[in-house]
């Protein structure tokens, strides 16, 4: 008894006329952080990060798998900005 094999994907889709699926190109190149890692960088819980920071101060990039990811450079810039603005406000009140 032999089983029939399903059609295997073409290893060279460019040559066969098939187009690359958009899902493969959805997540941009570069270092991306998930929600938990970004929350740790801010020193807050994941829930606080989601409620206070995500979407308002830091836009998420949703991958084809539905996972929210953030650009590491944007997270670092926002952390540095928030640290300096907090220090400046405490100095002006003292």
The termini sit apart by 85 Å
Strand order of the largest sheet: 1-3-2
Average pLDDT confidence is: 77
Q: Main beta sheet, described?
A: 3 strands, antiparallel
Q: What is the CATH domain class?
A: Mainly Alpha
Rounded to an integer, what's the Rg over CA atoms? Answer: 21 Å
Annotated CATH architecture: Orthogonal Bundle
> How much of the sequence is in beta strands?
5-15%
Task: Domain count, please report it.
Answer: 1
> What would you call the structural class?
mainly alpha
What is the global morphology?
Answer: elongated
As a percent range, the share of helical residues equals: 40-55%
Q: With helices defined by DSSP (H or I, 4 residues minimum), what is the helix count?
A: 5
Number of strands: 3
> And the CATH topology?
Multidrug-efflux Transporter Regulator, Chain: A, Domain 2
Low-confidence parts? 19-27
The sequence of SSEs as H and E is: HHEHHEEH
């Amino acid at each position: 008894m032999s089983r029939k094999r399903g059609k295997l994907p073409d290893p060279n889709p460019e040559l066969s006329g098939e187009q690359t699926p958009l899902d493969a190109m959805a997540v941009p190149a570069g270092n991306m952080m998930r929600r938990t890692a970004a929350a740790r960088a801010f020193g807050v819980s994941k829930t606080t990060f989601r409620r206070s920071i995500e979407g308002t101060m830091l836009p998420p990039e949703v991958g084809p798998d539905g996972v929210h990811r953030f650009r590491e450079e944007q997270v670092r810039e926002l952390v540095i900005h928030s640290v300096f603005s907090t220090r400046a406000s405490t100095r002006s009140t003292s």
